[in-house]
TrEMBL record:
It comes from Flavobacterium flabelliforme. Pfam families: MiaE (PF06175). CDD domains: MiaE (cd07910). SUPFAM superfamilies: Ferritin-like (SSF47240). The lineage of its organism: Bacteria, Pseudomonadati, Bacteroidota, Flavobacteriia, Flavobacteriales. Signal peptide: none annotated. This is tRNA-(Ms[2]io[6]A)-hydroxylase.
Length: 193
């Protein structure tokens, strides 16, 4: 469904389980960044009423997810740690086209956002199916569904708003690029690590 070519090795969950505090902290910050990304897209495209309406929903959901992760952190007697760089997202960001029209930039930003949501959804699925903590398994199963919806929303808006970009062709390029970098990840107890 997501079109990703390389699945996360389920053994990644063993790394995650060795440091639940790290994955939860990283996850919290991923949710914050996702909310900020939605708000940034709103700020840059206020004239696109339908996009703004949907992004407001996504931003609110991402903040709710942040609250949920923070609640789990507190329930486990932990504290929210400091934010670490997300090297995976930074590599994706560098792949985004910076030239072309304002519309071209919007389309690539939407595809960038869709890619992050797709990989997050895939990672949450792996967590939900393999983590021993049943509360976290259910939590990640529920979030997987939400992330899939966000992925679809971003991809559909890229198709809706394109003027000159062949979105399916560009999405295939995103898939290929993501496949080339994801091989370097899955070794750390972070959502994309």
């Amino acid at each position: 469904m997501l079109g990703l070519k390389l699945a996360t090795d389920p053994r990644w969950v063993n790394i995650v389980e060795s440091n639940i505090h790290e994955i939860l902290t990283d996850h919290a910050w991923c949710e914050q960044k996702a909310a900020s990304n939605a708000i940034s897209l709103i700020t840059q495209n206020p004239e696109k009423e339908e996009l703004v309406t949907e992004l407001l929903i996504i931003a609110r959901e991402e903040l709710e997810h942040l609250q949920m992760v923070h609640d789990i952190i507190k329930k486990k007697g932990l504290q929210l740690g400091r934010e670490n760089k997300d090297h995976y997202v930074n590599e994706l960001f560098k792949f985004m086209k910076k030239d072309g029209s304002r519309n071209d930039a919007l389309i690539d930003r939407l595809l960038f956002s869709a890619m992050i949501e797709a990989r997050s959804c895939e990672r949450f699925k792996v967590l939900s199916e393999n983590i021993e903590d049943q509360e976290l398994a259910k939590f990640y199963r529920d979030l997987m569904i939400s992330e899939a919806g966000h992925y679809t929303t971003f991809l559909n808006f890229a198709r809706k708003y394109t003027e000159k970009v062949d979105v399916d062709k560009r999405w295939a390029e995103w898939i290929e690029f993501e496949t080339s970098i994801i091989v370097n990840y899955g070794k750390n107890e972070t959502v994309h690590g």
